Amino acid sequence: SLSTLNLPEQSTNPISVSADGEGGNVSEKQVSPDKQIRAALLRSRFADTILKAREKALDQTTKKDPEKLRREREELERVQREERARLQAEAKAAEDVRKRAEAAAAAEAKRQRELEREAAHKALQEMEKTVDINEGSHF
């Protein structure tokens, strides 16, 4: 298993506060969706580099036992597939959050415009009413 290699777990995840050795239990702060997308893209970009380095270290430590090497490679490939799937899901989730935030901001802006339009309409009606009253008092 990869944990027997004593390799440090490196995380490029800026939203992580702490993580166990396998990256499982992660407590997270609230971070903007743009930062989440960027973090997911960076992890995805460098995942191959990290896994290749682990594989190279694996080659050096298991040259004596070909069966162990085969098992470790299979485990490494499985972890790589899972990591890619997780990163894609994370990037998609962050993008969905960003889109929802944009939609909410657009809806709020539309609601605000409607309120301003309604207030302007009421003010215009008041001015017209005042003008009508003033014109009526002159005659």
Structural descriptors:
139 residues, mainly alpha, two-stranded antiparallel sheet, 2 helices, 5% strand, rod-shaped
Structure in words:
- Residues 1-34, 57-76 are annotated as: Disordered.
- It comes from Zea mays (Maize).
- It is built from two helices and two strands.
- The longest helix is centred in the last third of the chain and has 73 residues, at 66-138.
- It is mainly alpha-helical and 139 residues long.
- Helix 1 (33-61) runs antiparallel to helix 2.
- Strands 1-2 form a two-stranded antiparallel ribbon.
- The chain has one domain (2-107).
- A hairpin with a 6-residue loop joins strand 1 (16-19) and strand 2.
- It is rod-shaped and about 110 Å long.
Give the SSE map.
Elements: E1 16-19, E2 26-28, H1 33-61, H2 66-138
Antiparallel strand pairs: 1-2
Helix pairs in contact: 1-2
Q: What's the Cα radius of gyration? A: 30 Å
Strand order of the largest sheet: 1-2
How many distinct beta strands? 2
Number of helices: 2
Uncertain runs: 1-27
Q: What's the rounded overall pLDDT mean? A: 75
List SSEs in N-to-C order: EEHH
Which percent bin holds the helix content? over 70%
Structure summarized in a few sentences:
The chain contains two helices and two strands, in the order ββαα. It has helices at 33-61, 66-138, and strands at residues 16-19, 26-28. Helix 1 (33-61) packs antiparallel against helix 2.
